[in-house]
Specification:
This protein has about 130 residues and is mainly alpha-helical. The strands form two sheets. A two-stranded antiparallel ribbon has the order 1-2. It has a two-stranded antiparallel sheet with strand order 3-4. About 65% of the residues lie in helices and about 10% in strands. It is elongated, with a radius of gyration of 26 Å. The chain has one domain. Helix 2 runs antiparallel to helix 4. Strand 3 and strand 4 form a beta hairpin.
């Protein structure tokens, strides 16, 4: 599958984007691998943290009612830590995106815009045929 990209970046001529080639490029595969290596553990941590809070609220109400400082309970601190945890994970993701994901995405995009090399395996279909090689 190829698509013509309009020359909006100041370059001249049409560029054919071969999306299959882009998907199979080592840069794209590394991008997917790096993103997954960050997102899966982060998602697991979020689920454990959030559902841990729910479980403690339901099954350990006495612990959650423990006063930490003048009316501030363990439950309040745990609930507020959800917001802190979200912002910290967002900041970590942004930093990883700037230093790892975006450079890999740029390399993969450049690879996708490289001119296609003609290969001997792609044969045009015969008139009235199915394109099968006989």
């Amino acid at each position: 599958m190829t698509e013509t990209v309009p020359p909006g970046d100041g370059s001249s001529g049409d560029h054919q984007v071969d999306w299959v080639k882009a998907e199979r490029s080592p840069e794209f595969r590394e991008l997917i691998k790096q993103r997954r290596a960050f997102v899966v553990p982060a998602l697991a941590f979020v689920f454990i943290w959030y559902f841990g809070f729910i479980a403690l609220a339901g099954y350990a109400p006495d612990f959650m009612r423990e006063s930490v400082y003048e009316g501030v309970t363990v439950g309040y601190l745990f609930a507020l830590s959800q917001f802190v945890m979200t912002w910290v994970l967002a900041a970590l993701y942004i930093r990883r995106a700037e230093h790892v994901f975006d450079p890999l995405a740029e390399k993969a995009a450049q690879r996708a815009l490289e001119p296609n090399e003609p290969s001997g395996t792609d044969r045009p279909s015969e008139p009235g045929g199915t394109g099968a090689v006989r």
